[in-house]
């Protein structure tokens, strides 16, 4: 051991730190004091002029007595001050570097004062004067007021008390000064003093000093080793703590109840359950496992390593459990989000008679926050008040956070106002709660109040403020916060950078968002996700997809959030080929099992029209939950497969999955697409049963479903009970009235909406113009169309122009319609030219029809409806040669006319009919009913309109073909399968023909039934021989 440190032999990994010794500690502690022939003179030091080189002078040295350091001779008043300042400078160099856990030093040489009584007092005063830490200064200054006579020789007891104070307050500098005097007075060999010093240096992370004291000890000391291991463990150096434990174990020193918890804590932090079990075995052998403190550490070890079963068994085996034991397991449950077990354990603690403390109640409040259980949270609040812990700052902050996150902001504010001195955590909790529940204005008011109070916000405060600005689209205020961040030198922080990108994105300022993204020093995956999401939210879907490609090219990586966001943009672009590529990428990267990605894939495939691919992804998913069912139901409904949507809902019920408002909304849309009135009513019953009537999505879908199923009265009832009507609710009802021909009622409802302070959007104005169209209100339509920009700030779009052109065309104002087409600020699309073609058919205008058909064929060459309508125009004026030419062009171009199809719902089943169809099981009854109706119709004065049939056959045969139209077959089936007097609801994929329209007016009068037909344009209500549609429709 002579000539080398024993620590060097036992802890080899730290040998390389020896070279750092000379840069970290004062000369006196490295090599011992240097003595000169004149005790009044100080040792030679470096000077700037010498560039660090020591002036070497040959001078005969005399050795002074070994107990006479240079700085304790004459001139103490000056020398001691300069020494202490130099000492602190050297130590400050150490503290600004990474902690060095193990260092090697030469032996500390003993030295003494010439006048110990005088200089011990001056030493205390000087340490107070030069101490940089206010807390240690206060501690030592208090010591001078205690009953300690500093003018007498200090004893081991007085030094122990001083070292204890320094250790408790982690006052390193005064403690090192006391250490010097301990050496001076010859107390360094006292085990108690040495233990205090080891404890001090360990807690202050000067482990090299602590190890040096251990190494020079003649006998191994359990207390010193325990202090060292505890220091390592408490300061986060858990691997070093384990190594020290190994060394202590090799030295034959047995652990006690104080050392074991520190070792177990190190095992817990490093997740080393194997070593923890070995230590547990030693505890069992030595009998320390029955100690409560040790047992608590064991419980925490097993729980935090995932062994909650073992942790609970150890907990149950503790004979006398104090509140600390309960809190140990309780905190593990809370940190692992095992809220149910935490609540059960808390109840067990109360029933056992153990009084919870502020830590128990604060943790329980956090559990209530996680469970969003305000009732239990209030009970715990009552416990806090009852037990006198309501003034505890941690408990108060937990209460504010709980009330804020569950949405009870009044109670959160009350608790916050009662905090005497709210800290930054208190402010953050209340501000974040307001932002979470969209009280953005209130959050910003609190933020201003925080600034006025003098409390400095941190990054979490500023993040919440940025979210509030984003929620209210306050771009200018967000810019001010951005400026403040730059002034505070926090502008480059990645966390706040993401907040800035999100704020600018939600304020529709993507240029600023991209600039923030570009200036970020390190752009991680979260930053990329934020800017991609911003482009997606602002409907800049191509930019979002391009950024994802760049992100993938640069090797940034991606997660489920990235894929879900990009798939949303791909769905908007309807780029199915890109969706398939991302699908393949998700399979390669292992995200095919992630429900978020699977859900996004189903949604994207559905919106791209690839329902088969969406179904395959659904079936291949290992875990099918409500969200996936909702996505696939929505995909079926959007693609006109309502029957599949309803079948899937039944499968969901069979699996015992409880529906939510979103899946009910999608089901209602499916029923609306099928005009499945009865099944829609059943979904309505489910909405009532599960309490979704107050949900805006369900309420709006109900209005839409009843309106599209032909029951405008039921739609009005559903609309009247919606608690908070948004723009979607108003638009659905106005559009429903318009489709059913109640134009004036639709306009009255629109005026009521404006009175209620709800501003319209472009969809609402489309419904208003449609209402005017179906009711023939030309003047009103012109008024709303011309004032869209001035009254509502909405520029007319293609849909609005199409409505106006259709209205003018039906009213016979063909020149005005063409003039409006020419004045459009953009190229007319298929909607506009389709409206003109329909007007040309009504008014038999060949020139306009040919022009509109030419433009439509250029825009949509695959659709057969254009050529069919053009042929009808030629046929209406007897131009059969051109009819034949059009039909020949259709045949040569392999353009097939879309067959007419009709749907009828009877007893929860939807039946489909095609023109001339005889595949139905009750076809004989259907055609027999048509023959019966034919006799009654002719008797009532009906004459078939054979002119609309383009087949080159005899008149009798044309009459027979007209009788077999799909909607006539559906009405005949309804007459034989529904009760007398019940309305018959039929849906058709094309516009109802003039002959069927005439027939249904006669039938409604003959059989005294209401017949409701929904074609691809509007509803027709046939009652008592009349139709609800605008008369010029069939001129």
What ranges have pLDDT less than 50 throughout 5 or more consecutive residues?
A: 1-151
Secondary structure: number of strands: 6
Label the structural class.
mainly alpha
Question: In what order do the strands lie side by side in the largest sheet?
Answer: 2-1-3-4-5-6
Main sheet properties: 6 strands, mixed
Q: Give the distance, in angstroms, between the N- and C-terminal Cα atoms.
A: 117 Å
Tally of helical segments:
54
Q: Could you tell me the mean pLDDT?
A: 81
Oligomer: single chain
Strand content: under 5%
Report the radius of gyration as a whole number of Å: 43 Å
Gross morphology: elongated
Indicate the percent of residues in helices: 55-70%
Explain this structure to me?
It is built from 54 helices and six strands. It has 1035 residues and is mainly alpha-helical. Among the domains are: 539-623; 638-724; 903-1027, no CATH class. Strand 4 and strand 5 form a beta hairpin. Helix 30 packs antiparallel against helix 31 (576-589). The longest helix has 20 residues, at 76-95. The chain is elongated, with a radius of gyration of 43 Å. The N and C termini lie far apart (117 Å). Residues 54-65 have a biased composition (Basic residues).
